[in-house]
Amino acid sequence: MVDATRQRSDRSKNLVGFQVGDVRYAVDILRVREIINPLPLVELPHAPPSVLGVADHRGEVVPVLDLRRRFGLPATAPTRRTKWIVVELEDRSAGLVVDSVTDVFGAGPTEQRGVPKLGTGDEARGIAAVYATGGGLTFVIDVDRVAAPAEAIDVPTALEAP
């Protein structure tokens, strides 16, 4: 469960910004446990395409999701700027692989814009909010919705095979 009582030193900074491809994204700072360099991964058979595998992070086995794959972008080799944002979901943690972490910033109602409705797949895109920041747009992702496809895969068993 997410601890909403966690304290921050600067209450005006409510988002952690990052980049995936050429697009700026952010997550609610209260959902971020840590930002870390990539750890060794264990690949799992029959995992959804966006799940790179699992990692042992501080004694917890954490699923690691590649946001490039999740957002339909081509894979790229990790660089020294590649980071994992370890986020807290309802009952566990997950690592989100991002191209780079950009900043911790604040955004409020005056910068907020409407979430675009694109039709099929709006829910799966996981966009919770959009803010006009620094001369562009920053898309705030709902970590629960973005991580959901990793859990909602139906892999047929050998008994179900035709």
Question: Sheet with the most strands?
Answer: 6 strands, mixed
Instruction: Supply the CATH architecture.
Output: Beta Barrel
CA radius of gyration is: 16 Å
Number of domains: 1
Contiguous uncertain segments of 5+ residues: 1-9, 151-162
Number of H/I helices: 3
Q: H/E order of the elements?
A: EEEEEHEEEEHEEH
Helix content: 10-25%
Q: What is the percentage of strand-forming residues?
A: 35-45%
Task: Label the structural class.
Answer: mainly beta
Shape: globular
What is the CATH fold-level name? OB fold (Dihydrolipoamide Acetyltransferase, E2P)
Strand segment count: 11
CATH superfamily: CheA-289, Domain 4
Mean of residue pLDDT?
A: 83
Cα separation of the termini: 40 Å
Question: How is this fold's topology laid out?
Answer:
Elements: E1 15-20, E2 23-28, E3 32-36, E4 51-57, E5 60-66, H1 67-70, E6 83-88, E7 93-98, E8 100-105, E9 112-113, H2 122-125, E10 127-133, E11 136-141, H3 143-151
Parallel strand pairs: 2-11, 5-7
Antiparallel strand pairs: 1-2, 1-8, 3-6, 4-5, 6-7, 9-10, 10-11
Descriptive terms for the model:
OB fold (Dihydrolipoamide Acetyltransferase, E2P), 162 residues, disordered C terminus, mainly beta, 40% strand, single chain, six-stranded mixed β-sheet, 3 helices, five-stranded mixed β-sheet
